[in-house]
């Protein structure tokens, strides 16, 4: 069980997405998942070992690390990727439900089970709203937990058992900051794509409804 | 999920590339991605652990390492490879869009559609002309830009492509100027030069492909212009026939519509 599982799940979603949805899947795979696995994971690999405090007091380093990194950046990043990808499964489940229904009743109930209309449109819109919501929640969480997206070189710690205020040094702060900014940029890009897709779908189906009503009125 | 997934995605683009494009893709996967994963990652694997500074001052090593390596070579290469591979997706998306249109035409039962079944549409290889030519050329242009930008970033950040054995560091909290020693500097220099050389080869391949496409484009245009000059009468006869057919079709359509509304 690894990221490959998520990749396979999302490849299924691609089939039932709009054009913008497919661009979103490509951005998530290549600029977020691939960058995470190929580059980012290794930067944070030995973060605890390489976190160094200017003190010999046993336990001080552990306590300070835990205080400044309640949840590691890389774990938050992984959680964000998983939570943001999951709402798309609602669409897959709804299409599977439609196909099952057609099989059970042994007749064609829908023009095409994968076509985005009716109930599937609502599910799709809900998945888009959830995706955008999760992205924003995680960005706010990152900002609040770490006081912005900067990673300082030095943090001052005075929690017991550290005897006084102690200097603690974080490893690779510049590299971590660069990748955090990259994460934020791709997150914002995904939010923009989701909002465009939402507007596009709402506009398209409102126009369809409006034209239908107008034609019915004329007749 | 790893570089193999990227290989799967880009493998689809290979079918619609020129021969130079196929060579570029092979060079990318064998001499860059594979070398990165199989060799280079091991060389840089212990970079911070074995980065040693001649001081016992806690924090000095961390700070000096961060000062000399704002972003590790290996991460920069990974980003470069990802960015350089991405423009090919534009071509993949364009091809997918064209296939989708052909499938729609086929399903509508359009007589213009010359395919026998959907499988043939899936397997068909599109020629690089028309709007696909523009997409393909733009993707090569962006590839060139990304390669150049990353090579410059590399040169700028590390003052050349050599990895020194010794670096002198005086960033706080190091008490004075301190000697810091990089692990495996020669091996790192060798791999850096190798990656830069392969990057340059990829740039040359992209430039060659761009020139080839432009030459083909201008040759095709001059051929078309030449054909039009030599056979105007024949073209006119064809046009008149088409015009007559169009008129017949529009007349029959009008009659059908009038009949339906009345």
UniProtKB/TrEMBL annotation, chain A:
Protein's UniProt keywords contain Hydrolase: no
PROSITE patterns reported for this sequence: CONNEXINS_2
Pfam families recorded: Connexin
Gene responsible for this protein: Gjb7
GO cellular component terms, semicolon-separated: connexin complex
Cited function: One gap junction consists of a cluster of closely packed pairs of transmembrane channels, the connexons, through which materials of low MW diffuse from one cell to a neighboring cell.
Ribonucleoprotein among keywords: no
Main location as per UniProt: other
Species the sequence originates in: Todus mexicanus (Puerto Rican tody)
Keywords: Cell junction, Cell membrane, Gap junction, Membrane, Transmembrane, Transmembrane helix
Assigned protein family: Belongs to the connexin family.
Locations listed in the record: Cell junction, Gap junction; Cell membrane
Entry-linked InterPro entries: Connexin, Connexin_CCC, Connexin_CS, Connexin_N, Connexin_N_sf
Bilayer topology term: Multi-pass membrane protein
Quaternary organization: A connexon is composed of a hexamer of connexins.
GO molecular function, one term: gap junction channel activity
Stretches assigned to the Connexin N-terminal domain: 42-75
Protein name (database record): Gap junction protein
Lineage: Eukaryota, Metazoa, Chordata, Craniata, Vertebrata
Segments crossing the lipid bilayer: 21-39, 77-97, 118-143, 178-203
GO biological process per UniProt: cell-cell signaling
TrEMBL record, chain B:
Assigned keywords, A-Z: Cell junction, Cell membrane, Gap junction, Hearing, Membrane, Transmembrane, Transmembrane helix
Main location: other
N-terminal signal peptide: none
Any Pfam family the entry gives: Connexin
Statement: the UniProt record of this protein carries the keyword Membrane: yes
GO biological process: cell-cell signaling; gap junction-mediated intercellular transport; sensory perception of sound
GO molecular function, one term: gap junction channel activity
Coiled coil: none
Gene3D superfamilies: Gap junction channel protein cysteine-rich domain
Domain Connexin cysteine-rich: 146-213
Membrane topology: Multi-pass membrane protein
GO CC annotation: connexin complex
Domain Connexin N-terminal intervals: 42-75
Transmembrane segments: 23-40, 77-97, 132-158, 191-214
Keyword Cytoplasm: no
Record localization: Cell junction, Gap junction; Cell membrane
Function in brief: One gap junction consists of a cluster of closely packed pairs of transmembrane channels, the connexons, through which materials of low MW diffuse from one cell to a neighboring cell.
Family to which this protein belongs: Belongs to the connexin family.
Quaternary data: A connexon is composed of a hexamer of connexins.
Identification of the protein by name: Gap junction protein
Gene: Gjb6
